[in-house]
Amino acid sequence: MLIRNATILDMTGSAPYLGDILIQDGKIAEIGKNLPYSAEEEVIQADGLWALPGFVDAHTHQGGFDMIDQNGMDLNEMTDLVTPQVRAIDGCNPFDKNFRSVPSAGVTTLCVTPGSGNVVCGQAFAAKSYGDNIRKMIIKDPCALKMALGMNPKGVYGPKGQAPMTRMGIAAVLDEALSQANQYRLQKEKAKNEGGRSPQIQ
Q1: Taking Cα atoms as reference points, which of 93, 87, 101, 80 lies closest to residue 162?
Q2: I need a labelling partner for 184 at 20 to 30 A (CA). Which of 36, 91, 94, 98 fits?
Q3: How far apart (Å, rounded) are the C-alpha atoms in residues 16 and 6?
Q4: Domains in the chain, start-ordered, CATH in brackets?
Q5: DSSP structural state of residue 98
Q6: 123 burial class (0-12, 13-18, 19+ CB within 10 angstroms)?
Q7: Containing H/E element for 7?
Q8: What pTM did the predictor assign?
Q9: pLDDT in tens, the chain (202 residues)
Q10: What CA–CA distance (Å, rounded) separates 114 from 118?
Q11: Side by side, which strands form the sheet with 107-112?
Q12: What CA–CA distance (Å, rounded) separates 94 from 101?
């Protein structure tokens, strides 16, 4: 495939410039002006159009929030304030229609996170946006631990008469969770150094 006469922004710090992009075997083979090509080559005339690298969406719930079918709402484990053990990869459906539309918007890389219903929401993963097997699309899993400090945990637990009902409550829950995690880390290090048994997760 040859993209001809596009305005190219290559993210190297250079100013945008007119040029051609030759793509072979699904990868960019060459960028330049007036590139030669074979008669069998598919040519896209891009006069007046821009060519940019694939976009990265650093916070998305694609493949796990189906707003029509409630059976597809799989990225919000709203049963506990602190759920660091849940993984977005286990609730992501790459065949979801919203997920399938991502590449056409120019987004080639996603960070898929759990929802924000809990204070500690779970593990996010980074993946390419195109493919049929989510585990083969992975770039890094996990790539982050999602936490929510805003309105969502208040909206989930406040109406139930549970903490957190305020931002103060959210901060307190997070502080306690991080404190417990740090104590567990210290106990593991001590057990390792002294040859003892690892502590049980509380």
Answers
A1: 80
A2: 91
A3: 10
A4: 2-52 (2.30.40.10), 56-194 (3.20.20.140)
A5: H
A6: buried
A7: strand 2-8
A8: 0.83
A9: 999 999 999 888 889 999 999 999 888 999 999 999 888 889 999 999 999 999 999 999 999 987 667 677 899 999 999 999 999 999 999 998 889 899 999 999 999 999 999 999 999 999 999 998 999 999 999 999 999 998 999 999 999 999 999 999 999 999 999 999 999 999 989 998 888 777 776 6
A10: 9
A11: 55-60, 107-112, 120-128, 138-147
A12: 10
What is the 3 state secondary structure string of 97-111?
A: HHHHCCHHHCEEEEE
Q: Which amino acid is at 67?
A: M
Q: Do the beta carbons of residue 149 and residue 121 sit within 8 Å?
A: no
Structure tokens at 116: 């924000």
Alpha helices in the chain (DSSP H): 97-100, 134-137, 151-157, 167-194
Contact (CB, 8 A) for 6 and 20: yes
Structure tokens given for 6: 């596009």
